[in-house]
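Let us work through a complete example step by step.
Step 1: write down the sequence.
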Amino acid sequence: MKRAGLMAASILLAASVLGGCAGGSSDGGSGKGSRITLYSPETPDFTKELAQKYQETHDEKVDVHYAGTNVLVNQMLAEKDNPKADVWYGGGGILPFEAAVEKGILGKYIPDFAADWDIVENGIKMKHGDGNYVGVEIFVLGFAYNTELVTEEEAPKTWEDLLDPKWEGKIQFPNPAASGTATLMVMDQMMRNGEDEAWAYFEKLVKQANSMPDSGSTPTKSVSMGEAHIAVGFDFMAYEQKAKGESVDFVVPDKTPVLVNPVSIIEGGPNEEGGKKFIDFLLSKDAQQIMANWYHIPINPEVESKTPLTLDNIKEHAVELDIDWVNANYDRVRSEWQAKFQ
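Step 2: predict the structure and record it as tokens.
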């Protein structure tokens, strides 16, 4: 490895179209005047920056359609017989991509940059075994904390630490029935400890929480505003707040999910060649630097992380996810959570 029922189309089209829309459309080939259509749930300003950099270096337009991951997946399923997108990038890690493989909406493409990567490296699945997606950055699930309310020494270091009575009413985590971030948290507990023990754990954790918002990023923002002491979320959420001058820092738990955030070509998309070039671009130094500037952990070794976290120093924390089990139980677990806690 080089170091590593469907929702209506109108919902999606409320999304931002960040490339220019006038004059031309995807013409089935890559080159001047052609377009790449990118579906992504990542931060609109972030994906706009990626699109603009690609346009500067490739002289090819990128239209970015933003919506939540579930909306985008439903849209791609609705368009399966006549795909509109060329590339899907991001979704809080590999789980939604894994679930989409069997639905026939993902094509196969692995860039040369990632050709000799191991499929799983140090517990982190770096790419799909059949080439349906490839990771372009690293996300770590852990704990944000307000540094004015919690010292570094007393901040929780393990998932079990969240059950300490001192955190009662001071924790926020996303709603697993709505948030992929929190679903990952639940699945991880079940894979490591078994379902009975995991449900017992969450019976206790729910009592510790003062809120369970649907959005994966809201708990970290609540920590920055002092509305919670501790939040469960991804690393970049905390470091973005810290970079804005907020009193927030992040703990990587002893053992926790560490995932790549992937990209995939869309099966039968109108501009396959352009889509492949855009995927190549996402692993390039230019794109990886933009990711790093947004406090994501880059994979390209030529780019330095803007946070204390790197692939090298977080891989020892990674727990290996049983992807087959996740795929078989993902929807059931979310439904059971809803039945138990809502």
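Step 3: interpret the result. Residues 151 and 291 are 29 Å apart (CA to CA).
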